[in-house]
């Protein structure tokens, strides 16, 4: 009984405080009409948000500033997005980077380890972004955002009924398995990752 009475007093006091801080609807700071921002096509960020098989890549990408351009409608990007299965199959995950050299006995601090992990993620995500759209997917080499890293495309000839991206091989190993068009670029889902060498 005491708990019920105490709860009622607290709730009524909270509602009094809340009701006193409300902004009146007729305030001059409020716009006359509300018009939501809409797009005919989704952005790259929208596509990656709803694409369940790209969730691991997008989780890594959101850790770096580069991902802000995914929502920029003026950006023109081609994203090579490894499927979750491709990322999970990696022996070393993107934040781990290349295999470390033989143990030298040097101990690094937690801050140094975090900095290395961030740098590894930036490099990995950058290698999957081509700062151009549209691209010819026939044969050719295109620079990624990772300095010095180019990605090659090889397309077999004679596939008239197939979309342009079908059967395209990326860097002699990954295959494009799906494509999603956005207002600011395209997402090509690949069944492997871009190798950093």
Write up this protein.
- The chain is α+β, with helices and mostly antiparallel strands.
- The chain has a single domain (40-97, 107-190), classed as FAS1 domain.
- It contains five helices and seven strands.
- The chain has helices at residues 2-20, 44-50, 55-61, 84-88, 110-126, and strands spanning 77-82, 129-130, 140-143, 150-154, 169-170, 174-182, 185-190.
- A seven-stranded mixed sheet has the order 2-1-7-6-5-4-3.
- The radius of gyration is 24 Å and the shape is globular.
Radius of gyration: 24 Å
| Main beta-sheet strand count, sense and barrel state | 7 strands, mixed
Order of helix and strand elements from N to C terminus: HHHEHHEEEEEE
Helical percentage: 25-40%
Helix-and-strand structural type = alpha+beta
């Amino acid at each position: 009984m005491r708990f019920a009475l105490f709860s009622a007093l607290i709730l009524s006091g909270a509602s009094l405080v809340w009701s006193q801080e409300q902004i009146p609807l007729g305030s001059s700071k409020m716009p006359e009409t509300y018009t939501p921002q809409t797009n005919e096509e989704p952005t790259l960020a929208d596509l990656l948000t709803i694409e369940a098989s790209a969730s691991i890549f997008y989780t890594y990408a959101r850790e770096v500033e580069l991902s802000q351009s995914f929502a920029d409608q003026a950006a023109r990007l081609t994203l090579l997005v490894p499927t979750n299965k491709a990322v999970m199959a990696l022996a070393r995950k993107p934040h781990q980077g290349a295999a470390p050299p033989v143990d030298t006995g040097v101990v690094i601090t937690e801050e140094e380890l975090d900095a290395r992990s961030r740098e590894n993620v930036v490099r990995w995500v950058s290698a999957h972004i081509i700062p151009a759209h549209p691209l010819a997917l026939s044969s050719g080499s295109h620079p990624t955002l990772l300095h010095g890293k180019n990605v090659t495309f090889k397309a077999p000839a004679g596939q008239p009924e197939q979309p342009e991206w079908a059967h395209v091989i990326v860097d002699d190993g990954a295959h494009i398995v799906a494509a999603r068009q956005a207002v600011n670029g395209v997402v090509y889902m690949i069944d492997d990752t871009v190798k950093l060498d």
